[in-house]
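Structure tokens please, single chain.
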Amino acid sequence: MNDISVLGAGAFGTALAIALSHHGNRVRLWARDGAVAEAMAAERVNARRLPDAPFPDTLAVTDDLNEAVAAETLLLAVPMQALGGLLATVRPADGTALVACCKGVDLSTGLGPTGVIAAAAPGAVAAVLTGPSFASDIAHRLPTALTLACADATVGTRLQHSLSTSVLRLYLSRDTAGAELGGALKNVVALAAGITMGAGFGESARAAIITRGFAEMLRFAETTAADPDTLRGLSGFGDLTLTATSEKSRNYTTGLALGRGEPVPAGKTIEGIATAQAVARLAAKRGVPMPLTAMVVAVTRGEVSVEEAGAALLARPLKEE
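Here you go.
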């Protein structure tokens, strides 16, 4: 029996805890708020995030961080911008596998999830779980395929087997940089795709945005330690396909709202907004042209209107594909 703790009781963390509990693992779900943890333990459901996904009897809920961190494998299911703060309070034993389940780039350091883990917990083994998935699908045990990336091949293989289930299929990669970069950058493109549809520019325009956005993702990857081929798999192209076309996606629906001239929905973590800012900053330093990313930053900051952003992109010089 695998001993797993999921740190973070949002929708995705809760879904993973449910799915892995059904697979015969010993799973703890940690919530920062004691009242929230107590309610979930009593009601056997995360009423706020996944009200239609009851907990298996084998899933334990706790607000005791020391108890949760004692597990052999920790799934870190907190927002990207909160990851560093969580790790500052966590002292896992050397050799513990820390699996990042968030997507993005840390604004303060410019690091991805495994970089933040390595800096905060150098004795742990960093990994990232990413790819095309919605929390509700995982919680209801619908077939899902993800990428599990870990530079340590031995630990990666162990994690692949312990975190896979009969309907959650994990593909193993050693390219943590590529896997986490694909998961981060696709959120930026999803925002742009949503803005396009919200503004009424049409599905043909959205297809162009997704295609040119993917080109930006590959272009940026070439300036990093990532293998661009990794972004052509589940953690890049696969995740982009899902996130930039479905209204279940928070980044896409936020883009829809922005395109309609509405404010960003309150109370939701929109990873693509912070990621766009961090990536635009890095791209400027490296001389990487990323016009879509720059326009997402400008629109989300209110520096330009959606119409002005669209006109600026269409006015760019013609070029070969």
